[in-house]
Amino acid sequence: MTNTSKKKIALIAGAGPAGLTAAYELLKQADVMPIVCEKTDAIGGISQTVQYHGNRMDIGGHRFFSKSDRVMNWWQEVMPLQAKPSKDDILLNETEKAFAPQGPDPEKEDRTMLLRRRVSRIFFLRKFFDYPISMKKETFLNMGFVRMMRAGFGYLWACVHKLPETSLENFYINRFGRPLYEMFFEDYTTKVWGVHPSKLGADWGSQRVKGLSILAVLKDMWRKNFGKQDSKEVETSLIEQFIYPKYGPGQLWEIVAKEVEQMGGQVLMQTSVSGVNIKDGKVVSVTVTKSDGTTEEIACDYFLSTMPIKDLIPALKGIEVPANVSKIAAELPYRDFITVGLLVNKMKIKNETKLRTYAERVPDTWIYIQERDVKIGRLQVFNNWSPYLVKDYENTMWIGLEYFCTEGDELWNMPSDEFIKMAKSELAKIDIIDEDAVLDACHVKIQKAYPAYFGTYYQLDEVKNFLNTVSNLFCLGRNGQHRYNNMDHSMMTAFETVDLIKRGAINDKSTIWNVNTETEYHESK
Asked: Which of 74, 293, 402, 462 has the smallest number of CB atoms closer than 10 Å to its CB?
């Protein structure tokens, strides 16, 4: 058994946003030395930046925006916003050439956040619709008269005939009406979760699109045209700007990891937590397994877990785990995630919006693919997240095709070359690219990207109550709580954890578990 100093030690499982935020804050606020164990070779969890042949890929897309001032200030403490460029330099893609990747060397730490324009649209019926759905003339024209009338009457019916919110399906129908739900939510949600929305709990909707409805869209349109807009009063899915690290989200977390080490903490890569050793209701040490298969026992005063609850429960040693707790944890559902990066010389779709863009490229960061004849769920255009993500910004477009799957299924097991071939053919099928426009491609798989809200999820309180009996064990982050937290939510669980440790009030962990259950939704992604 080893210990590194006379300071109190916090062993942290996972070098994602929650784990690294906790490590950073423990050093700055609580004089506790963190030892962060990351089982992979990548910093940032699903907020990592994957590099491939000089291009950078944001896994899942991460908008740096939060209604929490503490989170926003923390990000900009680590990476300040670009020093007062002109509005056009910040927001318009046509001027991004001025600061495209021909100046700063990413290897020489360039700590700058850009202010970005958020554009996300839905691709349905081979046409673009605003996301969230807007009341613009183009929306009605793209729908056609019959669909438009059905949508209008469906919404009015939903206003007077509310369904019990016992499922995600009913949640959406109550806010948009059944026709709009069937057009824009039903198939996409099934793609994401592999389960029909009628089988999913309304919890997911309340956490991800809290407050979003036709009425919220109309109110937002009124504010834009006639009123003063306060970002804290705008439904998160309607926010139009966000900040973003020049070289993707992983850049920020790599900087944080370096700072943790510079302040005296440790970040151990390719080191997984294989045992959590408990005595008298407290974690006394953690057994870690290194990349070469050797193990080490590290004594600690606190254990902060961002590892999936499914993996945490069987790792507990020295305590009797109730059979129901083990069963619930073992059966918790997840969705896994695959991204195909395609480097293309051009896309067939052109910018037909009123937004000015470089070389008439589409302005979207995300495009939600609602077409029923393809498996792809969402498309990212990395040029629009940051021009620094693309090696040759002027002559190529770097796009990410996102697929949702379950480990072990057909998509997960498909060989990389076959998957890339399928992905290219799907984009060609819906007229977004020509297959011969593809210059290069890569294939990235992420396990347990999305904790799912069905199955034993609804018995999770039993697991939570058991874990809370271990006084110095804290569950934080997306997988640590089995909650679909965004990056800012994950950071907020870390803030709450460090605040409790600092005050010595570690027996009541309700403030940690209550993050992202409040009535107002905070979003970064």
From this structure: 293
Sign of CA dihedral 160, 163, 164, 167: negative
Residue 416's φ and ψ, nearest 5 degrees, are -55, -45
User: How many domains does the chain divide into?
Assistant: 3
Instruction: Say how far apart CA 456 and CA 326 lie, in whole Å.
Output: 11
- Say how far residue 3 (Cα) sits from the centre of its chain: 35
Q: What is the mean pLDDT of residues 138-160?
A: 88
pTM of the model: 0.88
Mean predicted lDDT score pLDDT of the chain: 87
Residue 337 CB burial class (10 angstroms; 0-12, 13-18, ≥19): buried
- Structural domain including 308 reads 9-45+251-332+454-513
Count CB atoms within 10 A of the CB of residue 149: 13
- β-sheet bridge partners, residue 35: 11, 266
Does the pLDDT at position 327 exceed 80? yes
Other Cβ atoms less than 10 A from the Cβ of 88: the count is 13
81, part of any domain: no
Tracing tokens 């030690």 back to the chain, one arrives at 9
Q: What is the mean pLDDT of residues 110-134?
A: 87
> What pLDDT was estimated at residue 239?
67
Between helix 186-193 and helix 168-176 the angle, nearest 10°, is 150
Biggest CA pair distance of the chain: 73
Cα distance between residue 230 and residue 391, in whole Å: 36
Place of tokens 């004089």: 31
Q: In what order do the strands lie in the sheet with 334-344?
A: 127-130, 120-124, 366-369, 378-381, 397-405, 334-344, 438-451
What's the CATH number where 38 sits? Answer: 3.50.50.60
- Look at residue 388 in the predicted model and tell me its pLDDT: 93
Per residue in 240-263, is it b (16+ CB within 10 Å) or e — as a string?
eebbbbbbbbbbbbbbbbebbeee
Specify whether 458 is located in the same domain as 489: yes
Pairing of strands 241-245, 9-13: unpaired
- CATH number of the domain to which 232 belongs: 1.10.3110
